[in-house]
Write a structure and sequence with these properties.
Order of helices and strands of chain B: HHHHHHHHHHHHHHEHHHHHHHH
Number of strands of chain B: 1
CATH superfamily of the largest domain in chain A: TolB, C-terminal domain
CATH topology of the largest domain in chain B: Serine Threonine Protein Phosphatase 5, Tetratricopeptide repeat
Largest interface: A-B, 47 and 48 residues
Mean pLDDT of chain A: 90
Structural class of chain B: mainly alpha
Number of domains of chain A: 2
CATH class of the largest domain in chain B: Mainly Alpha
Structural class of chain A: mainly beta
Mean pLDDT of chain B: 91
Shape of chain B: globular
Helix content of chain B: 55-70%
Number of domains of chain B: 2
CATH architecture of the largest domain in chain B: Alpha Horseshoe
Helix content of chain A: 10-25%
Low-confidence stretches of chain B: 1-20
CATH architecture of the largest domain in chain A: 6 Propeller
Strand content of chain A: 35-45%
Number of helices of chain A: 5
Oligomer: heterodimer
Largest sheet of chain A: 5 strands, mixed
Number of helices of chain B: 22
Strand content of chain B: under 5%
Shape of chain A: globular
Distance between the termini of chain A: 39 Å
Radius of gyration of chain A: 23 Å
Strand order of the largest sheet of chain A: 2-8-7-4-5
CATH topology of the largest domain in chain A: Neuraminidase
């Protein structure tokens, strides 16, 4: 599945793909054309992915798309930017890579105009016009994610991939084939740095795989006084420390069909890992028996830890009363110790909600988090929304431009703090897809757009979710074979 | 003479054809539904054999709700969890689960619900959504159908897509249903099935089918562990007391796991009628020294069954608990199951 193609191959591929896609669409058209069996596509937009009015970075891959109306006979798309005009015939618009890059370069800081004339079966005509804005703010060119079916709690044949979002190259960072079908958790970078990242391979030969200082280490991040091995967390900007939660995680099923899965912790604490000294510390201030602490992250300057905390209550009985506040506690990178007392940054009682997944922008200006009605696992909470706070003023920014009526979660910032990516279940309500959104220095957001794919039908045909999309400024220095070898051969470094 | 021979040849040829028509090639259907070529089919499931083909047939026919065929396919071969699971479902669909429960192999709760995990194997996982779906428990049905998809070769199978589409239609989640229907519309032979289910354009039969399943839906929400079968069944019944399938499954679950305290709590002698229930009540009362006239009246126990229970106990004492004679005479009673059936599974 992994594709490592050079740009020259890509240029050839563009032409080939058009031929293949034309053939595929003929087949699709033939099969969809059977009387009564054409199923409407899931969108109100005339095109999917919905790139109408979006803002994209000037280094994004081609925005291939298809028209969504049923019964299209002919479609002509005209794309204009300054003096340049390009035309596409047919239901799909698939770009040649070189032409797209030229167009983007000429449109930087400006917009590209699209105009469509569609002839329907029966003679009806449709016209659509829209623009795509091209921001001069580039986005980090790589995105990693776990591809997994939204299968609640059991995994099978999972893989973590890394995609170059300037084109369609994708490679596997770790997969089930090389790890004995182990489960693996998501790959996170520290402030979008390709040279500082981490993920887990679970199971008896697994461990935490730390990519730091040009080497990959396999770590057993567990100490006696922790309630479990490490789960959620982040690496300190210095690279020396990590802050993690250790959680006893319980999956529970809702009886009402549309609500599906609730995951909750019966115990959780925070712990600090010192990657230089192979030590784990469980600071008393963030490991209280009467409090569930989770989702810790460092502030951009590394001097504080933000995390979520809730009072313990009987679970699962009272799960709808489980509300996490956003907390902040000091961190001393000389000693690796937290402060003595935490302060409330976002009060769950005051806001009548529950916060999770905080992430600080690398420029130190924002903290973004997810707010749900309750709980600590919002991916099936349709009501959950992204929200961010200005860390200089404490002002909360509602993110209506980015949010949808489905779960919008698991965001990560670009190194420039001008873009973020998040997983959204908009569209079909089931399958998470990575959406990118631009944020300016005042916190103004633009309409988000989904990760472009070579095949414009990719998302309709895919039965996997993009889990924990995480941006990085370059490709990481490992691959699935390396990880597979380490799983089989390397002993995990013990932490005390 | 020659004409007769020709005629008889024609008759036998037509019989062969009709037999072939009566018994679909389930292996081939399974292979096609999972987009497998011959090599992969052989690698995944081995060379064709009647046992595996029979299981393919049971699973496929059950997905389509062809209970007569499922009944035929499980007939005479009920010594596996999967056969017990489906035969129990067929019996329950006919309202006879309790009456038939002791007449064939029962692997405790696994004959009622197939647990799904990575060790279960693809065929059991593929089967595991069926009971949940028919009960009206859509969360667990979807969980199982999703896992059936995940554990299939290439993570793909037409039956699971169909099930996922229907579950989302029942739940009113039309966007998700459309996704699965669109994928199915590209599958040969699915055109009519898809056309009948396009949200807003459903056929009358499909509308009725979906309405029936929706009538079973939970009216209140709770969060439960995957193995809390009893809690889910109680919730279904609290939402719709007329859910006969859930009622049979609840009582038979209590009985099959020998949880008689919960059985007595769940049992209503004025509406639940089966000899199996009477046999279970007698064990419960006997354990507490409570076979009193009041209880006999309350539970509607006949003199005949009281006498048989007494005979059972006398024979047990006389044979000093030897299993063989007890099985010969009482092998199809709950008394025998309660006393002798042992779990060989964890």
């Amino acid at each position: 599945m992994a594709r490592l193609t050079g740009s020259s191959i890509n240029m050839l591929k563009g032409t080939l793909n058009k031929v293949i896609l034309a053939a595929v669409s003929l087949v699709l058209f033939a099969s969809c054309g059977r009387e009564g069996a054409e199923v409407p596509v899931n969108t109100d937009s005339p095109i999917y992915p919905d790139y109408m009015g979006v803002t994209v970075p000037s280094n994004i891959a081609p925005l291939n798309f298809h028209y969504t109306s049923a019964g299209i006979r002919k479609a002509r798309t005209t794309v204009t930017c300054h003096e340049s005009v390009r035309e596409f015939e047919g239901k799909e618009v698939v770009w040649d890579m070189k032409q797209w890059k030229e167009l983007l370069a000429s449109a930087e800081g400006d917009s590209i105009s699209f105009s469509a004339e569609i002839l329907m079966k029966g003679g009806k005509k449709e016209k659509h016009e829209w623009k795509v804005y091209v921001s001069p703010d580039k986005i980090d060119p790589y995105l990693s994610y776990r591809l997994i079916e939204p299968g609640y709690e059991v995994w099978h044949e999972v893989e973590i991939r890394e995609r170059c979002i300037e084109n369609f190259d994708e490679r596997v960072l770790s997969d089930w084939k090389n790890t004995g079908n182990s489960c693996m958790n998501c790959h996170i970078h520290s402030q979008a740095r390709a040279d500082l990242s981490m993920f887990y391979v679970r199971g008896k030969d697994g461990g935490a795989f730390l990519n730091r200082n040009g080497e990959i280490r396999k770590l057993s991040l567990r100490a006696k006084n922790m309630v479990s091995g490490t789960v959620y967390g982040e690496i300190h900007p210095s690279g020396r420390f990590g802050v993690f939660s250790s959680n006893i995680i319980i999956p529970g099923f809702h009886t009402q069909g549309s609500r599906r899965l609730e995951v909750y912790d019966t115990e959780s604490d925070l712990a600090i890992a010192d990657f230089d000294r192979n030590e784990m510390t469980v600071p008393p201030a963030v490991s209280r028996r009467d409090v569930l602490e989770t989702f810790p992250v460092f502030s951009a300057d590394g001097r504080s830890i933000y995390y979520c905390a809730a009072d313990t209550i009987p679970l699962p009985r009272d799960v709808e009363k489980l509300r996490y506040s956003l907390m902040k506690i000091g961190f001393d990178e000389k000693t690796g110790m937290t402060g003595q007392a935490a302060e409330v940054v976002w009060d769950a009682a005051e806001h009548d909600g529950s916060v999770c997944h905080p992430k600080c922008s690398p420029d130190g200006r924002w903290i973004m988090y997810t707010v749900a009605d309750y709980g600590t696992f919002p991916i099936w909470h349709a009501e959950c929304q992204l929200e961010m706070m200005n860390l200089h003023t404490g002002e909360i920014v509602k993110m209506d431009a980015a949010n949808s009526d489905r779960s919008d979660t698991y965001h990560s910032w670009s190194s420039s703090s001008r873009w973020f990516v998040f997983a959204s279940k908009r569209g079909d309500g089931k399958y998470g897809r990575p959406y990118f959104c631009h944020v300016d220095e005042n916190g103004n957001l633009t309409k988000p757009f989904v990760l472009p794919q070579e095949d414009p039908w990719h998302y309709e045909n895919s039965l996997r979710s993009f889990n924990i999309p995480d941006l990085s400024d370059g490709p990481v220095n490992f691959d699935a074979e390396t990880i597979g070898r380490m799983v089989k051969e390397a002993e995990a470094e013990v932490f005390h | 003479m020659r004409l007769n021979k020709i005629f008889s040849l024609l008759v036998s040829a037509s019989l062969i054809v009709s037999c072939a028509e009566d018994t679909p090639d389930y292996r081939q259907i399974w292979q096609k539904a999972h987009h497998l070529d011959d090599d992969r089919m052989a690698r995944m499931y081995g060379e064709p054999d009647d046992g595996t083909d029979n299981v393919f047939g049971i699973i496929l026919e059950a997905y389509d709700g062809n209970w007569d065929k499922v009944g035929q396919l499980t007939e005479g071969s009920r010594t596996s969890e999967i056969h017990a699971y489906y035969h129990n479902l067929v019996m329950a669909m006919e309202g006879h689960l309790a009456d038939s429960l002791m007449h064939y192999y029962q692997p405790f709760e696994r004959g009622l619900f197939l647990p799904v995990d990575e060790k279960a194997g693809q065929l059991k996982i593929a089967a595991s959504s069926e009971v949940w779906f028919r009960l009206g428990e859509m969360t667990m049905a979807e969980h199982s159908a999703m896992l059936a998809q995940i554990f299939s070769p290439d993570h793909f199978g037409v039956p699971y897509l169909k099930r996922l589409a229907e579950i989302n239609l029942v739940n009113g989640q039309d966007e998700a249903a459309r996704k699965y229907l669109r994928l199915l519309s590209q599958e040969e032979g699915c055109e009519d099935w898809v056309s009948d289910r396009i949200p807003g354009l459903e056929s009358q039969a499909v509308k009725a089918h979906l309405a029936s399943l929706r009538s079973f839906a939970h009216k209140s929400d709770m969060v439960h562990r995957p193995s809390d079968y009893r809690g889910v069944l109680k919730s279904l019944l609290a939402s719709n007391p007329d859910n006969q399938l859930a009622r049979q499954y609840l009582l038979c679950l209590d009985i099959i796991i020998k949880d008689l305290e919960h059985f007595i709590e769940d049992y209503d002698p004025s509406r639940d009628n089966s000899r199996l229930y009477d046999e279970a009540v007698l064990i419960f009362l006997a354990q507490r020294g409570a076979i009193t006239p009041q209880n006999i009246t309350h539970f509607g126990l006949s003199q005949e069954i009281l006498q048989e229970f007494s005979d059972y106990n006398n024979m047990f004492a006389f044979s000093q608990g030897a299993m063989e004679p007890m099985q010969k005479k009482y092998g199809k009673t709950y008394w025998f199951f309660y006393q002798y059936a042992k779990r060989n599974i964890k």
